[in-house]
Amino acid sequence: MKTKDRIIHGALELFNKNGERNITTNHIAAYLEISPGNLYYHFRNKEEIINGIFDNYAQELKTRFQPMVENEQPVMPSAQIMLSYLDSIFVLMWNYRFFYANLPDILSRDFGLKQKYTNAQESLNDNLIGIMNGFRTSGLITLEDDELLALTKTLHLVSSCWISYQTAQLSDKEITEAVVYQGMLQMLNVVRPMATEQGRKQILELEAHYKGRL
After folding, report:
1. d(Cα 2, Cα 214) in Å, to the nearest integer?
2. Candidates 3.40.50.10860, 1.10.357.10, 3.40.50.300, 3.30.70.330; correct CATH number of 57-211?
3. pLDDT tens for each residue of 147-177
4. Right CATH for 1-44 from 1.10.10.60, 3.40.720.10, 3.30.390.10, 2.40.37.10
5. More confident residue, 70 or 19
6. For 32, 38, 93, 146, which has the most beta carbons within 10 A of its beta carbon?
């Protein structure tokens, strides 16, 4: 792995474990057993490292949340496809939990990063609408257009703010995988009242799956 990539991955590990505000570039260099000068050769400051981490995050958002197609035709969503999307949400929330936990502060320090975040979220929202439309077309949920848009926004808000909310609630306790799985269950609880009989059955199966991981 190239030194630049090692710095990004090492910083991500430290930020997730100790909180971004508690970690300096010297901590990162010591953790990777490289000199501060070597680190500064690749990144001028910690904000540039955070930008590098965010670029990886944004690329994952782009690839993980595309409406599924096969032979240029939309794939009708099933419980397995719903599980795939939910697991992708879990992976992102867990792997980049420092970012979710302290989002307003991080973005307030870097206007360029805030703009990149806004662009990434707008693109994600468009893809989420496409995904939810697929669920509606397949008969898993029954909603009017405005209701579907509102549901998509609610799910987007829950996934974006869950860790931040839990960080405030838990105070000095650590965010665990179980806490993130609770976020998955909360999203399913939001969708279940809008589900058809077929959709409700699949949602209950997914709820049982995530409850088994708590």
Report:
1. 36
2. 1.10.357.10
3. 999 999 999 999 999 999 998 887 767 889 9
4. 1.10.10.60
5. 19
6. 93
